[in-house]
Amino acid sequence: MAKILIVGAGFYRHIYELQLQGAKAALEAGGHKYDVLEVPGALEIPAAISMAADTAAYDGFVALGCVIRGETFHFEVVATESARGLMALTLDGLPIGNGILTVENEAQALTRADPAQKNKAGEAVGAALALLTLKRQFEQG
Ligand SMILES: Nc1c(NC[C@H](O)[C@H](O)[C@H](O)CO)[nH]c(=O)[nH]c1=O
Ligand SMILES: CC(=O)[C@@H](O)COP(=O)(O)O
């Protein structure tokens, strides 16, 4: 059993709600406990996970959000920096599943957020739990 914190960006609320469904269903199917913390955008997710990790209240984390390409370089900043922040935390030993979608348009996002289609949030839950299992194995020696 694990206690997982889902940290999600409500920037595209309808997409985020779908992602939450997929993540919650995956966690509940495995009998895991979870809390949900919402932040404004994907850029805030790594900092929120870092702050939550300091409390030692969670075994692992799932990042949910969606970045859709616009007209400017901002897409690259949000998509790349959120992933970079999550990877830095992961390499520091936090079990994190990155479910932040980085897509060209809303249609791509909906397909990947929908629990009945690609269900990338469910995949991110699986990744976080897999890293947590590895971490526990290494800690036991
Ligand atoms: N354009 C998207 C954003 N932008 C907002 C940033 O994440 C951030 O909240 C802002 O720059 C203030 O620091 N966020 C997304 O999650 N998705 C986007 O497509
Ligand atoms: C991905 C984004 O940051 C997006 O919302 C920004 O759109 P734009 O580049 O058109 O300002």
Characterise this structure.
The chain is of the alpha/beta class. It has a single domain (3-140), classed as Rossmann fold, CATH 3.40.50. The chain contains 5 helices and 4 strands, in the order βαβαβαβαα. A 4-stranded parallel beta sheet has the order 2-1-3-4, with helices on both faces. The longest helix is centred in the C-terminal third of the chain and has 21 residues, at 120-140. The model has no long low-confidence stretch (mean pLDDT 98). Bound molecules: ligand LW54GNZ2 and ligand LTPLIIQW. The ligand CC(=O)[C@@H](O)COP(=O)(O)O binds at residues 67-68, 70-72, 74-75, 78. Ligand LW54GNZ2 is lined by residues 9, 11, 40-44, 65-68, 74, 78.
CATH architecture descriptor: 3-Layer(aba) Sandwich
The major beta sheet can be summarized as: 4 strands, parallel
Q: Helix count, per DSSP?
A: 5
Structural class: alpha/beta
Summary tags:
four-stranded parallel beta sheet; binds the ligand CC(=O)[C@@H](O)COP(=O)(O)O; 52% helix; Rossmann fold; binds the ligand Nc1c(NC[C@H](O)[C@H](O)[C@H](O)CO)[nH]c(=O)[nH]c1=O; alpha/beta; 141 residues
Produce the secondary structure layout.
Elements: E1 3-9, H1 13-29, E2 33-39, H2 45-54, E3 60-68, H3 74-91, E4 96-103, H4 106-113, H5 120-140
The structure holds ligand LW54GNZ2 and ligand LTPLIIQW.
Function: Catalyzes the formation of 6,7-dimethyl-8-ribityllumazine by condensation of 5-amino-6-(D-ribitylamino)uracil with 3,4-dihydroxy-2-butanone 4-phosphate. This is the penultimate step in the biosynthesis of riboflavin.
Keywords: Riboflavin biosynthesis, Transferase
Protein name: 6,7-dimethyl-8-ribityllumazine synthase
